[in-house]
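Ops channel
N.P.: pipeline sanity check, posting one input/output pair.
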């Protein structure tokens, strides 16, 4: 399997020497980077809560910045969860982009609008880093006809993320006065271009994962039959070992697939008041209320209907711009 480390390294190699210098966040203790990111994000979250920071986007939408910090923390946790499942996990994988996230979080930016926009971009990129790491573990572990296209799409996305990092470092490290200069304004435009391109390329990656996933699913039945046939012809101890290995690989795949399913769920901000209300309602009381509202056995109906759904059904909704905008909003 092509490791995430190698793809990020290839992305770095494709940059100009000037851009490579701009993304040089090297540090010896790479395994500590995720802990540093979590700590920095938590500190920014507490600061935003204390100051009740919000910022207004160009379209007029008001974003609660502490929600962005909370989402960013969730993405790091998901990245770590993938590492707990995958035996191929190396703590230095994707160390460079996470080091960039840490760098921006540790910047001292006192302008709410600037800090809000920067944090929103970091949250999106953190989600892409975690999601693509999972894609590599799931879809690059076994060869397939569509795999080269997925690798190319990932490489393009990683390269553009690094270009964004290089441009953003030049911009956010400037003072407020210098940000008003013409050259820095051009840098800001370049940042917007990179962000737009990142969104497009993430869509390309998503499309390629569907192709690989479909191909692997179609191949699964045939390979299961081959494995069962091979195992039946082996001696007792060797056959048992083969079954154990197959079961282990299958369990890993399904564990990673389960994590992927959680990526499709929006990260919710739960208010303290609502949490208190639900905590005070006993299970029996909730069950009685639901039974009073409807006697329809909705759980059974849902399970029955869901079992007949074809893989990939409803994906069009997740790709609609209205849904994407809602899902990425501050309080989705």
């Amino acid at each position: 399997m092509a490791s995430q480390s190698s793809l990020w390294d290839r992305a770095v190699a494709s940059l100009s020497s000037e851009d490579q210098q701009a993304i040089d966040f090297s540090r010896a203790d790479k395994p500590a980077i995720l802990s540093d990111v979590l700590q920095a994000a938590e500190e920014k979250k507490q600061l935003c809560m204390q100051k009740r920071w919000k910022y207004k986007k160009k379209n007029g939408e008001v974003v609660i910045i502490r929600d962005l910090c909370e989402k960013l923390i969730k993405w790091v946790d998901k990245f770590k969860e993938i590492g707990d499942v995958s035996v191929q996990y190396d703590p230095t994988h994707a160390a460079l982009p996470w080091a960039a996230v840490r760098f921006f979080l540790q910047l001292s930016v006192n302008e709410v609008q600037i800090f809000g926009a920067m944090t929103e971009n970091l949250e999106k990129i953190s989600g892409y880093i975690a999601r693509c790491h999972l894609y590599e573990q799931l879809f690059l572990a076994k060869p397939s006809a569509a795999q080269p296209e997925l690798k190319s799409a990932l490489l393009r996305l990683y390269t553009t993320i690094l270009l964004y990092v290089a441009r953003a470092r030049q911009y956010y490290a400037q003072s407020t006065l210098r940000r008003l200069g013409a050259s820095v304004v051009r840098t800001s435009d370049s940042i917007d271009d990179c962000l737009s391109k990142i969104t497009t390329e993430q869509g390309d990656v998503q499309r390629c994962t569907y192709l690989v996933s479909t191909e692997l699913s179609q191949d699964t039945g045939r390979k299961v039959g081959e494995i069962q046939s091979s195992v039946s012809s082996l001696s007792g101890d060797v056959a048992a070992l083969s079954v154990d290995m197959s079961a282990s690989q299958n369990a890993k795949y399904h564990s990673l697939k389960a994590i992927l399913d959680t990526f499709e769920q929006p990260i919710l901000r739960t208010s303290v008041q609502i949490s208190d209300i639900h905590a005070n309602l006993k299970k029996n009381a909730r069950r009685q209320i639901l039974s009073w509202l409807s006697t329809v056995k909705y759980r059974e109906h849902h399970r029955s209907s869901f079992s007949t759904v074809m893989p990939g059904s409803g994906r069009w909704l997740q790709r609609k711009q209205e849904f994407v905008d809602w899902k990425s909003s501050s309080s989705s």
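N.P.: looks fine end to end. Confidence is low (pLDDT under 50) at residues 179-185, 231-245, 270-275.
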